[in-house]
Write a structure and sequence with these properties.
mainly alpha; 4 helices
Length: 156
């Protein structure tokens, strides 16, 4: 097994997002960056955070209604392919909601280096969580998954 492959589906995306958010906060403090330098940035950040929460809730409800796993560490345990609701717009609405949360934080911090956080999160989750999930779903759901993948974007 290649060294980086051992990271696949080992660290849940919410943990990665929390670590990235903490790194953004630490970097901002070290650089003397203030949160919410303007009312507009605060409102944009809060609004995007609320949209992120609504998206995450809709995604979890979709999985719950389908009675399939929400555990990102074992994608092979999925019992059904969820393609309705928010899953019509994004194959990964839960990861998208976490990315939106980090983008909201970057907006509120208003410092160019803070945008590295959401970029790192998107790259890490794509490589170590989404790609292995896609392989597992393709094996489990075959042609149905390939059709879904062809018509629905990975992020948005």
């Amino acid at each position: 097994m290649p060294p980086v492959q051992c990271l696949e589906t080992k660290l849940p995306a919410p943990v990665v997002a929390a670590l990235v958010g903490a790194a953004m906060k630490w970097s901002a403090r070290a650089a003397g960056v203030a949160i919410d330098p303007s009312a507009l940035r605060m409102q944009l950040g809060v609004g995007l955070s609320q949209l992120s929460a609504a998206l995450a809730l809709a995604a979890v409800v979709g999985l719950w209604w389908a009675r399939t796993t929400i555990n990102p560490l074992q994608p092979e345990k999925a019992t059904s392919l969820v393609t309705g609701g928010v899953y019509r717009v994004s194959r990964n609405p839960l990861y998208l909601s976490l990315l939106m949360l980090l983008v909201a934080y970057a907006i509120r911090l208003d410092a160019a280096p803070m945008w590295l956080g959401p970029l790192f999160f998107a790259a890490y989750v794509t490589r170590f969580q989404i790609a292995p999930e896609e392989r597992a779903l393709a094996l489990k759901f075959g042609e149905d998954y390939q059709r879904y993948r062809a018509r629905t974007r990975r992020w948005i």
